[in-house]
Hints:
alpha/beta, Rossmann fold, 5-stranded mixed beta sheet, 35% helix
Amino acid sequence: xxxxxxxxxxxxxxxxxxxxxxxxxxxxxxxxxxxxxxxxxxxxxxxxxxxxxxxxxxxxxxxxxxxxxxxxxxxxxxxxxxxxxxxxxxxxxxxxxxxxxxxxxxxxxxxxxxxxxxxxxxxxxxxxxxxxxxxxxxxxxxxxxxxxxxxxxxxxxxxxxxxxxxxx
Length: 168
């Protein structure tokens, strides 16, 4: 169920339609490695972003179809449900999310429905890139693991390079 903070963020994202590129970091605050996407967005806000780039914290309860609509490029950051070394960064595509059993590949968002709705409305992003980080633990500890914490600056650099080199 959306709360007042979430609704305010969605309304702000709707108003800022000049941003053609949207970076969304998903996560849960104070939930260990699960807050990685939020930490990336917070780090991006400390940088000078190119014109036309907006960052958004994707939290439970926000209507992502409204946030995604009308953007040319969408960059998503979240922890991912994949086997591998903790802290490993993976780049995924939409094709990686459409197979059976892949609905929960991203830990905090099933973006398939909001994107499908944007396609139906003919306002879907032309390009979607997904950066995931493999968590060390999802046990609910409030502290982020050292493996994931060390990778936050690397993901921020990767996303900054993406938005600087964007063709949109």
